[in-house]
């Protein structure tokens, strides 16, 4: 049987290639609104972030998402918080 191709994406924070399912997508719409896109299907300019707390915290200090999207610091604080919340939510085992 033919093996299914696994889509790979590059993390904008760590520059590592990983399977798409191991990443979280951050998207900017045409209107300039920033959002976290857990489904990976929202319209707009997207970037992928690794599901690694250390990488996200280091990126927050270096303002990596702001640089990538040419955005304001005030706009990105909730985005970092949402990414961290999604990472924690996946780590907690479902009952």
Walk me through what this model shows.
It is built from three helices and five strands. With 95 residues, it is an alpha+beta fold. The chain has a single domain (8-91), classed as 2-Layer Sandwich (Hypothetical Cytosolic Protein, Chain: A). It has a three-stranded antiparallel β-sheet, with helices on one face. Helix 1 (53-62) packs antiparallel against helix 3 (73-91). Residues 9-83 form the YlxR domain. This is YlxR family protein. Pfam families: YlxR. InterPro entries: YlxR, YlxR-like_sf, YlxR_dom.
Summarize the structure.
The protein is α+β, with helices and mostly antiparallel strands.
- Termini gap: 34 Å
By secondary-structure content and strand pairing, the structural class works out as alpha+beta
Please name the fourth-level CATH homologous superfamily.
YlxR-like
Q: How would the global form be characterised? A: globular
CATH topology: Hypothetical Cytosolic Protein, Chain: A
* CATH architecture classification name: 2-Layer Sandwich
Mean pLDDT rating: 89
The counted number of beta strands is 5
The CATH C-level name is: Alpha Beta
Beta-strand portion reads 15-25%
> Residue ranges: pLDDT <50 for 5 or more in a row?
none
Query: What is the strand arrangement across the widest sheet?
Result: 4-3-5
Order of helices and strands: EEEEEHHH
Radius of gyration: 14 Å
**Percent range of helical residues:** 25-40%
Major sheet details: 3 strands, antiparallel
Question: Number of helical runs?
Answer: 3
How many domains? The number is 1
């Amino acid at each position: 049987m033919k093996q299914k191709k696994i889509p790979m994406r590059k993390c904008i924070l760590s520059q590592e290639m990983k399977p798409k399912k191991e990443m979280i997508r951050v998207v900017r719409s045409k209107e300039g609104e920033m959002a976290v896109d857990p489904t990976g299907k929202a319209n707009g300019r997207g970037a992928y972030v690794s599901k690694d707390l250390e990488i996200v915290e280091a990126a927050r200090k270096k303002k990596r998402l702001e640089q990538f999207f040419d955005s304001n610091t005030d706009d990105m604080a909730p985005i970092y918080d949402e990414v961290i919340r999604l990472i924690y939510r996946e780590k907690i085992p479902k009952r």
